[in-house]
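FORM 7B: Structural annotation worksheet

SECTION A. Query
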Amino acid sequence: MEVQTTVALPIVLAVELSPGETPTQLALTRDEAAELAAHVASDLHALLPQVDQARLALAGGLFDAVELLRPGFPVWATLDELARRVPRGHLENVVAFGSHEGRMPAQPLEPDPTYADGPMRYIPISLLAPEPLATELAEQLEIELVGRGEAGQRTSDALMRRLGVQLEHVRYLSRNDVLALTCVQYEHVNLAPLWMLLEAALLTPYREESTLSARGLPLRYAEGKVFAQSPAAWLAAQAGEATQRTHDLAGIVFELRQYAALLAAHGLAVRLEGERIDAIEGGLLEQLADADPGFDPPTLVAHEAPGLGVIALTVAQRGDGGAARALAHGYPLAPQSLGPLIALLAERYGIAPDLHALGRVVLDAQGRLSAPATPLH
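SECTION B. Predicted structure
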């Protein structure tokens, strides 16, 4: 059967919008996708005539790279599955999937409007070829697409007409080309460690990968997730004066927020290392200890940094002498997570969700994240 005898070769039609242009739609209709697929087949035949021996499948959606580069490559996996269901020889072995009544045939083929603002959009394509041909074709695609992969005029015109935009470039790329471009983009903005984790998740998901962020936060990929050292644990291992330490902590939380947002866009969750760890959407929580009935009732405080707002929550108790004992820390990595984190900490420690905003970061005598020694009212 075809599903057993073909190998899928993933490529894209990369569409670079002219400055200030926004597509009128992110998904093509069935007829529009079929028209585009016919042009694509003609373009690829001119580059590599052997393509005609493969089944060409096209998904009529405009995706951002973060939507395509997710563990398991779900967009291509869905496209391949749908294409293999179509009887061989149907529609001259070119199949296209577009929207019908505003919906694509499967959820992974629905472009997410959240990522629609980027100047580069990608239309996913698969070539399903018999195994002997696939090996040869894969090598030729890597060479020919990067060197001579400009789309034909009819293809570009059809896209501009359907999308209602002017385009700078339209060209074919292999999935490896998209990976390489994304790597360069992340390295350019000092996110090479993030790419190391993402690359492991995409290409070698069975292997662990460890790295340090640019600011020195330990990060580890394992079993489909990225694990980070908690900012409080990172801070406890640092040296320096209190002012510098609070500044460094704010930088670590900012970086963790950046990593969490980008990795989430790529379909990867971020968790904290250690035991007694919780996660809610956009937030992380670590429990350090249970409340001690011999201490004062726990209080909930918010550490704040200029330009970042609340960077951490701390539940603490005061004992003899007024010294605060940290019971838990929460880290709101996205604005919508602050409320749920407060509610979760209040429930966990049996206190009212009354948050004391400190206006600064408070450290104890050892330079660790803590709470004021004097009672807050």
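SECTION C. Observations
Residues 229 and 273 are 5 Å apart (CA to CA). The chain has a mean pLDDT of 92.

SECTION D. Sign-off
Analyst initials: ____
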